[in-house]
Amino acid sequence: MRTSKFPCRGLDYRLCLLTLVVFLLLFGTVSRLNVPDVSYAKVSKLQHYKYNPKREISKGKGYPPVLAYWILGTKGESNKMLRLLKAVYHPRNQYLLQLDDGSSESERVDLAVSVKSLEVFEEFGNVNVIGKTYAINRMGSSALSAPLHAAALLLKLNSDWDWFITLSASDYPLMTQDDILHAFSFLPTYVNFIHYTNETARNEQRDKNQIVVDQSLHYERSSPLFFAVESRETPDAFTTFRGSPWVILTRSFMEYCVKGWDNLPRKLLMFFSNVAYPLESYFHTVLCNSPEFQNTTVDNNLMYNLWDTDPSESQLLDMSHYDIMLETGAAFARPFGEGDLVLEKIDDLILNRSSNGLVQGEWCSNSEINDTTKVSEAEQEFCSLSGNIDAVKPGSFGIKLKNLLAEIVNNWKFRTSQCIGVVRST
């Protein structure tokens, strides 16, 4: 970390600092808009946004929802991202893969080529890779800019999805997509899953009044944050909140944040642009301060996160955590090391996924292959090219999750109490 005093001789310090922060945020935003982004069809440019579905997806009552996944990785994680993609793949969903600035151009091209080479992804046309990278500092506002950018791209590609799910290359599902889609089929599409946390010893060190500047907004490579010596006063126009950066948010809420027809998301984006770890606060604060979305939050992000119980952020999930993960009923867990044996156990006993293959679902039309415990990747691709993609068949984990979510909605059992009574200034 670097500490620096900003040269503002002859000027009001706060005015000078505010001017600098606004300039950097606007500069970073404009540079994001000029990034050629999405596609796997043109690997060299990865520019066009055209969405060309090969199969019609039915929507509405009686049909499963559509989930939009954003999967973020860094240098050396493309194989982990592909494994995760295959574990969470379903023809109904949308997928956007992104490697950050730590990766090389050849690594990003290889990822796009790998996606392009799988016949099932080509058949359904629902997997895209962000081609041109940009700097992301996990501590700074560039980390907040990334999911907002991803949501905007997914809305541009195809706005016919219901929930936005953020994952990293170190995450993995604890149930099949048939399970998750079945459980979410019974939910109203206004429910946001986001975990709020109380102030901990680690969080107390991150004073939200401490002013920081994320240089990664205007450099091609991730750079250290600048920490100002002075701090600012606590805001009184809104109440800030904090929690897990891993979220499952509705399309309507993401449109509210991205399109910003109300000034609240934009105002909070400006505030959190110079706060450390803004991704742990931005969505939480927008939800709780918005009358339109305040009562749509469930204090559960359906993610088992080992780091929630180990602030040192040093441990990885392994075989010793297997039973505990499943007992929680979470849909996802993190963080896993690459190639850990516990992933093979999840593939074998929960996902019924063969090595390097896709997870079998009801959308696979070949019942003989679908009932086989071990099939090759080629057989999985073959059975995926036809069949009813609107059909899902849950297992025991999906039924358990459906009952949990039904209890949440009917009784608002896990609705966060932190939002209650929050009134934003007009």
TrEMBL record:
GO cellular component: membrane
Record membrane topology: Single-pass type II membrane protein
PANTHER family listed in its UniProt record: GLYCOSYLTRANSFERASE (PTHR45719), OS01G0121800 PROTEIN (PTHR45719:SF11)
Keyword terms, alphabetized: Glycoprotein, Glycosyltransferase, Membrane, Transferase
Highest taxon, organism lineage: Eukaryota
Chief localisation class: membrane
Subcellular localization: Membrane
InterPro entries noted in UniProt: GLCAT14A/B/C, Glyco_trans_14
Molecular function terms, GO-annotated: glucuronosyltransferase activity
Name of the protein this chain belongs to: Uncharacterized protein
Taxonomic placement: Eukaryota, Viridiplantae, Streptophyta, Embryophyta, Tracheophyta
